[in-house]
User: Which sequence fits this backbone?
């Protein structure tokens, strides 16, 4: 990242989202889990219902986020948000793969950087997936 | 952050966003933040993150690039300005409009129609040049493609493709403007010829080819294989493909090459028919439409292959038949007791119809065939009573952007064309093809809904176990529908709660609270489909009153209306009223917070927005018969007292109905509560419009 020289800049004020990111491709790997039965009621309404399939239980059983290493790239795509506030890879996949993607950010600069040695970003992170 | 792991956040709650607040140490100058996201993808995958800054000191976001930073910014601005002036085209050129002031010179654009979940264009233009001396570029003539398409419009800068998605509907006159013949049988034959050459590339279309060509063509084989692949890999929605496959292997078996027949039979024997059979797929079983098709598949598979051992369950076909039959009967029992859970859904009623038609044709039991006949009648009645000029124009239990904005492209519209010669021919052919193959003919429900000048008709029906109160009011010139008092102020999903159709072409209009900011995003609720926070709605004949109290946590802090200004004969803005005229149909929209017409970007000319979290909205329809002229309609409404105070609700002195007041979750006219009783069967009233 450091070899990149030019800046695409944008302001980030209170409650604004950080929306422009370099990303990896979204990687898919088929996820095989043991064959299992389960039970859940048919939805008798129109609203969303949450039903945890055995395949998700198997995924969560074997997934340890603390052992995940941050990938080193290549970060060769730019995510452009347009009107979206989310960095959004929402899609539809008929069979169960795991999907993953990585995004090293933009740089973040304080506009008053000369006036302060360091600061904290107080941010709210929402995540779906 | 700057090379140090700062946060691990892994709630993994499927498709529901989780939130946390974090402190990030930021050094002086440039800082680098890296985010990694994992998920198990199951069908519709909401896969996103949002990083919202909660600090008070302004920051500068910096995207470092090797070169072309200025060009990247220019292209972003240009693409943000792009729009199609019309959502659906039938002839002429496909023109992409833009703001030429965003260009410093010519810009080479790439056009790609190969987007997930949408069909590709058959003969697409892939490159065009946008120029600063004009405000549009032609993407070529409307060709032979029929359907809804999502185009990726992009340009290169700094070695990067910057692109965005835009939706367009195409219903070319040359292909779809077919004059309906007088009888259902004749229209079925016309339709099969159309489907032979157009529509979704699935097994259903292969059967249309067999009907028309009397042979199994290579194209038919390709369509069967596409469906068979879905069944073999047990992909989500495989049940939509499997149920018609039973019709193929019974009625059209003599057309099939033996190896293909055997492969289909093998897939049927390996399929997983319910969750009590072991499996590791992520097919969705639990909605009304999916459950029904799985049960039908089990029932028919068991009947056709009684000696076969089905590998997922280990049961014989005879056992599968018995279990499947019980489940189908139970599904019908619930359906006949409560009606549709996914009420009026133009998307999912079509899926249920796949099941009804296949059972009507090939169910081995007369009782099941009788039930499917009854269900078909009931469904055609619902479709027709909720259609205006052949377009299903009502509220929907579940909806998507394209099923709302491009309603002439949804399957019930095509179904109405076959049944009654109204509506439009389009690319959604899964149930339509089966209707045309079937001997079923619906009762003449189209005669029930005829309104002459001056007549009105209202219908009310409680649907589903939740007894959702669906209501519609029609005259010859307009149709206005809603769900009364449905889950007010709760977070929504895909529920489309109110709708208006105007004039002889059924021009559509609705008001909702966007569920996300992306204009054509895939989340539920989305920008157009569903509501972030659902409003309180009360409708009395041609008057609809809405109260919005949006949760501040919602992403969008305004409401909006879908208003295709280009289809109106006239529109007038008067204070906080928007008045619309489409031939002899009139509509007045009043927003308590005022409104602005969207004049830039993808929604240009198709949207009005009203800022704020709390709103009162009035939607009043009228016509020339009742009001004599558009001018009188405007004066009649604009001159009446209207008031909205969040704590005291919305009050409107209607020129015909009296003083209408809604507050919180109650509604009254002239101080008397509006009746809100049960309507377990379709309640119908008819009358004569009063002159105002």
Assistant:
């Amino acid at each position: 990242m450091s070899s990149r020289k030019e800046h695409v800049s944008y302001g980030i004020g209170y409650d604004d989202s950080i929306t422009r990111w370099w990303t990896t491709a979204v990687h898919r790997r088929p996820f095989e889990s043991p064959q299992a039965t389960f039970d859940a009621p048919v939805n008798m309404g129109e609203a969303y219902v949450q039903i945890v399939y055995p395949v998700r239980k198997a995924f969560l059983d074997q997934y340890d986020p603390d052992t995940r290493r941050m990938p080193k790239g290549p970060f060769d795509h730019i995510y452009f948000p347009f009107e979206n506030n989310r960095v959004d890879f929402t899609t539809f996949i008929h069979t169960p793969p795991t999907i993953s993607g990585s995004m090293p950010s933009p740089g973040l600069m304080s506009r008053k950087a000369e006036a302060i040695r360091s600061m904290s970003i107080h941010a709210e992170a929402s995540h779906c997936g | 952050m700057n090379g140090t792991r700062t946060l691990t956040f892994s709630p993994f709650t499927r498709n529901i966003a989780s939130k946390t607040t974090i402190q990030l140490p930021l050094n002086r100058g440039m800082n680098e933040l890296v985010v990694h996201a994992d998920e198990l993808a199951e069908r519709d995958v909401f896969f996103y993150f949002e990083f919202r800054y909660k600090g008070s000191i302004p920051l500068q976001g910096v995207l470092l690039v090797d070169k072309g930073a200025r060009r990247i910014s220019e292209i972003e601005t240009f693409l943000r300005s792009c729009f199609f002036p019309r959502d659906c085209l039938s002839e002429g050129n496909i023109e992409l409009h833009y703001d030429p002031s965003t260009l410093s010179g010519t810009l080479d654009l790439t056009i790609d129609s190969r987007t997930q979940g949408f069909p590709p264009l058959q003969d697409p233009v892939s490159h065009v040049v946008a120029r600063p001396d004009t405000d549009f570029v032609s993407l070529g003539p409307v060709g032979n493609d029929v359907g809804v398409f999502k185009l990726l419009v992009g340009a290169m800068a700094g070695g990067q493709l910057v692109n965005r998605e835009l939706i367009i509907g195409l219903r070319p006159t040359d292909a779809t403007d077919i004059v309906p013949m007088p009888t259902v049988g004749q229209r079925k034959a016309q339709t099969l010829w159309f489907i032979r050459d157009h529509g979704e590339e699935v097994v259903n279309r292969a059967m249309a080819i067999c009907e028309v060509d009397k042979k199994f063509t290579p194209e038919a084989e390709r369509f069967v294989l596409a469906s068979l692949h879905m069944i073999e890999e047990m992909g989500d929605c495989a049940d939509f493909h499997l149920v018609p496959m039973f019709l193929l292997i019974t009625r059209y078996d003599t057309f099939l090459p033996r190896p293909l027949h055997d492969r289909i039979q093998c897939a049927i024997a390996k399929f997983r028919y319910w969750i009590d059979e072991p499996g590791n797929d992520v097919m969705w079983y639990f909605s009304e439409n999916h459950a029904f098709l799985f049960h039908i598949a089990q029932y028919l598979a068991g009947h056709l292959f009684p000696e076969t051992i089905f590998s997922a369950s280990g049961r014989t076909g005879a056992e599968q038949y018995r279990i499947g039959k019980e489940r189908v009967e139970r599904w019908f029992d619930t359906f006949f007791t409560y009606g549709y859970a996914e009420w009026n859904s133009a998307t999912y009623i079509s899926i249920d119809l796949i099941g009804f038609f296949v059972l009507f044709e090939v169910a081995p039991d007369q009782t099941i065939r009788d039930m499917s006949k009854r269900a078909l009648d009931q469904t055609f009645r619902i479709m027709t009573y909720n259609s205006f000029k052949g377009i299903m124009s009502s509220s929907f239990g579940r909806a998507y952007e394209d099923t709302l904005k491009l309603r002439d492209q949804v399957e019930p519209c095509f179904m109405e064309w076959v049944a009654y010669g109204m509506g439009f021919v389009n690319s959604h052919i899964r149930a339509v093809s089966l209707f045309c193959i079937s001997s079923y003919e619906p009762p003449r429900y189209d005669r029930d809904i005829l309104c002459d000048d001056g007549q009105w008709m209202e219908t009310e029906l409680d649907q589903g176990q939740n007894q959702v109160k669906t209501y519609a009011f029609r005259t010859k010139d307009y149709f206005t529908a809603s769900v009364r008092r449905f889950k007010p102020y709760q977070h929504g999903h895909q529920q489309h709660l109110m709708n208006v159709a105007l004039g002889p072409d059924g021009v559509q209009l609705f008001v909702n609270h966007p569920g996300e900011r992306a204009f054509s995003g895939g989340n539920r609720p989305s920008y157009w489909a569903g509501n972030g926070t659902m409003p309180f709605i009360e409708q009395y004949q041609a008057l609809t009153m809405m109260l919005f109290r949006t949760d501040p946590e919602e992403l969008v802090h305004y409401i909006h209306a879908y208003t295709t200004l280009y289809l109106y004969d006239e529109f007038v803005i008067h204070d906080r009223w928007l008045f619309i005229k489409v031939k002899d149909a009139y509509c007045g929209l009043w927003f308590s917070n005022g409104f602005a017409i969207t004049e830039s970007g993808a929604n240009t000319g198709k949207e009005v927005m009203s800022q704020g979290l709390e709103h009162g909205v009035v939607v009043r329809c009228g016509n020339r018969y009742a009001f004599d002229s558009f001018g009188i309609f405007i004066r009649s409404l604009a001159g009446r007292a209207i008031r909205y105070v969040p704590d005291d609700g919305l009050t409107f002195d209607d020129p015909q109905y009296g003083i209408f007041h809604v507050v919180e979750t109650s509604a009254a006219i002239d101080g008397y509560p509006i009746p809100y009783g049960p309507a377990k069967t379709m309640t119908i009233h008819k009358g004569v419009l009063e002159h105002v």
